Amino acid sequence: MPAAVRHLIVSGLCFAFVHAAVKFIPRIPTHEIVVFRGLIGLLLTWWAVRRAGLPLWGNNRLMLVFRGLAGTGALILYFHTLQSMPLASAVTIQYLHPILTVILATFFLRESATKTQWLFFALSFVGVMLVKGVDSRVTPLDLGLGIASAMCSAMAYTLIRALRHQDQPLTVMLYLPLMNVLIIGPWTLFHYVHPTLWEVGVLVFIGVFTQIAQYFMTLAYSEDKAANISNLNYLGIVYAALIGYLLYDEHIDHLSALGMVVITLSAILTSRWTARSRSAEAVTATPSVAQVPPLTEVDRR
User: Fold this and answer.
1) Backbone angles phi, psi at 54, to 5 degrees
2) Count of CA atoms in the C-beta half-sphere (13 A) of 282
């Protein structure tokens, strides 16, 4: 299994824990959750960057700032939808971002998907619709905010891929919590809700696991094309449905179970297809025996 695939699977699982934790603290406003998560992430990433001896502010600072802004917008909108609609619905809408990421990468990075990869995306989306279908509890406003969150996520992931030759993953990560704190912090100071000890614990959990998820996600998109790995993000639907069932008693019917099987199958096919493509590229890059010119009499001497 390619390293980028493993990293994205781990990232998706950690993000699923974060998504579930957000619903544990409905009393805390979305902006405050984002700021707490940003403060924890900023501290952890700053320590990691200094420990690794990397330049603190990176090289392409303008693109790094845009990455932070896109990620901040995605977080605010997504955390809002997590608190205003059922978990599986919020995650389903957010997970439009794999397709949007590939579309953006096609236009801006010239990394287009093959017909086989689009087939896998279509298979995943069929699975998504089986899992969720149409939820009457989702208002048009929340639907629009969810789609906007997915677009911001796609922009952030595309920028991560674009920065792969200019800045290290840890430096790229630093700008997301930095933008969180700078943009949302002032508003939070005037609209602060004092958390209980339990809520502080959940906030710390969200901050730590978001940072782990961001690290592995940044590694994945730095290591491989969006078209090769974005489809694996749909495993988040499966994680969310299972967590919703176990923690929030959100029912999983037969169609939902079938959808999760379809998504998992698509993820497995994507992983195997990516691994096979990598092997083919490695063989192509290695000269064969037939390509090596024979030794001349002078060479033998």
Assistant:
1) -90, 155
2) 7
**Residues 256 and 131: beta-carbon distance below 8 Å:** yes
Residue 296 is assigned to a structural domain of this protein = no
Within-domain flag for 262: yes
Encoded amino acid at 124, one letter: S
Span 244-288, pLDDT tens digits: 778 777 776 677 678 777 777 776 777 677 667 666 655 555 554
Sign of the C-alpha dihedral computed for residues 144, 149, 153 and 156 taken in this order = positive
Q: Which residue shows structure tokens 């236009």?
A: 107
Determine the Cα–Cα distance for residues 273 and 124; give it in Å rounded to an integer: 15
pLDDT of residue 1: 67
Which of 15, 264, 45 shows the shortest CA–CA distance to 175?
45
How much is the pTM? 0.70
Looking at this protein, which amino acid is placed at residue 161?
R
SS3 26: coil
Per the structure, the count of domains in the chain is 1
The Cα–Cα gap between 190 and 220 comes to 38
